[in-house]
Design goal:
With 329 residues, this protein is of the alpha+beta class. The chain is 31% helix and 33% strand. The strands form five sheets. The chain has a five-stranded antiparallel beta sheet.
């Protein structure tokens, strides 16, 4: 029942958080201070306060000064915990590094660096996508921290908000803040190994092509001699015939298209996701072998190339195929 209620009110919770936090946490670098740190008693702290209140009521009814003093001490301990917890995290510097793009069958990794030039911070916890990492001590020198997140379906994502919190030193107070990095990443289809060979073919130029033709002209087969015409390429003149007959003749060749190896969506079996996974494997293997390939998706053609930018562009095209919107989590 609690899980259902939490799921039902999750959108409202996110909207409320966005409104309360506004833009002060939307940055890749944040130093925690009074305007970006939030402090409240923890669950244990609220329990402590409840017991202190009950002790105070009992002491008032039975006029027991010792019990009344203990209730005051418990309340003071909670207040001191609030101050100490805030002081522990104040000045903490968060620097977002990256959430690297990867395949759908891989876990995401959030990378950041921590430092505190003012004092040492202890027992700092970092929470992202349901995973929590404990950093026992943060000093003035920067240290890199990685947080493993879950697997995601292919697509384009904005980096989810990171939560940093601590209950140091007594566990009676909780202090927390957020880092909402303005960054994104791609999740590519999970490569599915296969034995489907790539066909070498020439694709026609089309308006959907993004980087030129997919075929090149070649001069492979001799077709004969023709009469020389003005502006003809002098390098094709048959000088042997000119020496014998004093006649300018030009060699003609059959022009054949040198086809490119094409990773073609239509050539693979299965549904959309299966085809994209097969294509992702072909692109991965082509990148390993540094083999020039062209990409053919319905409505999109990427010309033959073997640069790292080309392979990256191809994988992004697969990630975004029929998923043109952004995903926010």
């Amino acid at each position: 029942m609690t899980a259902l209620l939490r799921k039902a009110f999750a959108p409202l919770h996110h909207q409320l958080q966005d409104w309360l936090l506004r833009d002060k946490h939307k940055t890749t670098s944040l130093t925690l201070g009074h305007s970006t740190v939030y402090v409240l008693p923890s669950k244990l702290g609220f329990g402590f306060i409840l017991v202190a209140a009950l002790n105070f009521i009992l002491a008032a009814n039975y006029q027991n000064n010792l019990v009344q003093l203990s209730s005051y001490l418990m309340l003071v301990l909670v207040l001191m915990s609030l101050i100490q917890s805030y002081a522990n995290i104040k000045g903490l510097q968060l620097q977002f590094k990256e959430v690297a793009s990867g395949y759908a069958n891989q876990e995401r990794t959030y990378r950041l660096s921590l430092a505190n030039q003012q004092r040492n911070s202890y027992a700092i916890q970092l929470q992202w996508q349901g995973s929590t990492t404990l950093v026992e001590k943060v000093e003035d020198s920067s240290q890199d921290v990685s947080i493993q997140g879950g697997k995601q379906a292919r697509g384009y994502y904005k980096v989810p908000r990171l939560k940093v919190f601590s209950t140091y030193p007594f566990g009676l107070a909780k202090v927390w803040s957020y880092l909402d990095a303005n960054a994104d990443y791609y999740v590519y289809p999970a490569p599915q190994p296969h034995n489907h060979g790539l066909n070498k073919q020439a694709l026609d130029d089309s308006p959907q092509q993004t980087s030129g033709a997919l075929s090149q002209s070649g001069n492979d087969e001799f077709d004969g001699l023709k009469e020389h015409k003005q502006l003809a390429d002098y390098r094709r003149i048959s000088w042997k015939h000119f020496a014998k007959r004093e006649q300018l003749l030009v060699k003609e060749f059959i022009t054949e298209a040198d086809g490119a190896y094409v990773v073609d969506f239509e050539k693979f079996p299965g549904d959309v996701e299966n085809r994209l996974s097969l294509m992702a494997y072909s692109i991965e293997q082509a990148q390993i072998q540094h083999m020039p390939i062209a990409i053919a998706l319905p409505g999109l053609i990427l010309a033959c190339n073997n640069s790292d930018e080309h392979y990256l562009k191809a994988l992004r095209a697969l990630a975004l195929y029929k998923k043109r919107g952004s995903h926010h989590e």
